[in-house]
Write a structure and sequence with these properties.
The chain is mainly alpha-helical. It contains 10 helices and no strands.
Length: about 220
């Protein structure tokens, strides 16, 4: 199951790259302009590495919480498995753009988390050093995103905190290609990821994976 989870997390991040470009692409571009004395690719890498660190930290925390509660309550572990399956279905529909199944999650994240974290911007700006580029990426890693939150909910059922962190690292790495490349290359990749055939094909993978998680969890109850 570990390989399947990591591969699925990577694909989720890859398919969410178009969304990432809309939400974070402008930030990455402005960072490259602000860091005119530094190689643009290095600046983009630092910014996205900061995001990766935030995702990994969040995955570590939620997986540690999930593993602790699951050990104490068998019913909680089963509920998490069902929840993960349901969210895979929602991710599949979201990727295929059949419904805005994750919009409510982004609004909730904006209200609960982002409105408070974004105030830290004033301590990082202006972005004039490599350390600040990394810190800025770490800050924006908490930007409300339905796919990120879905991956975190998925990480809740990880067998350990490390496993949860690695799942989120795999997700973050999936977003790297679209945010590291620039210009014409980014447009070509974005066009491919947003092509109807690509979205439907990979969206269906998540839908069927969601059904698979729900079925194997139900089978455990029967056994």
């Amino acid at each position: 199951m570990m390989e399947i989870n990591f591969a699925s997390a990577f694909l989720m991040g890859l398919m969410g790259s178009g969304h990432c470009l809309a939400m974070c692409g402008g930030i990455a571009s402005s960072l490259q302009l602000a860091q005119s004395k530094q190689p643009p690719l290095l600046v983009a890498f630092l910014y996205n590495s900061g995001r990766l660190l935030s995702y990994a930290t969040a995955g570590l925390l939620v997986a540690a919480l999930g593993a602790s509660l699951a050990k104490q309550h068998t019913g909680f572990a089963i509920a998490l498995s069902y929840l993960s399956g349901v969210f895979m279905l929602l991710v599949g529909l979201y990727i295929m753009r059949l419904a805005g199944t994750l919009n409510w999650l982004e609004k909730l994240g904006n209200f609960v988390i982002w409105q408070r974290i974004v105030k830290l911007n004033k301590h990082i700006l202006p972005i004039d050093t490599k350390a600040k580029a990394l810190a800025y990426g770490a800050l924006w890693g908490w930007l409300p995103c339905g796919l990120v939150y879905s991956a975190l909910i998925w990480s809740l059922q990880a067998k350990s905190a490390l496993y949860g962190a690695l799942t989120m690292v795999a997700f973050a790495l999936g977003t790297f290609p679209a945010l590291l490349v620039a210009g014409q290359s980014a447009q070509i990749l974005n066009k491919f990821l947003n092509h109807t055939v690509t979205r439907v094909a990979l969206g269906n993978l998540f839908v069927w994976y969601g059904f698979y998680l729900i079925i194997i969890t139900s089978n455990k109850l029967v056994d």
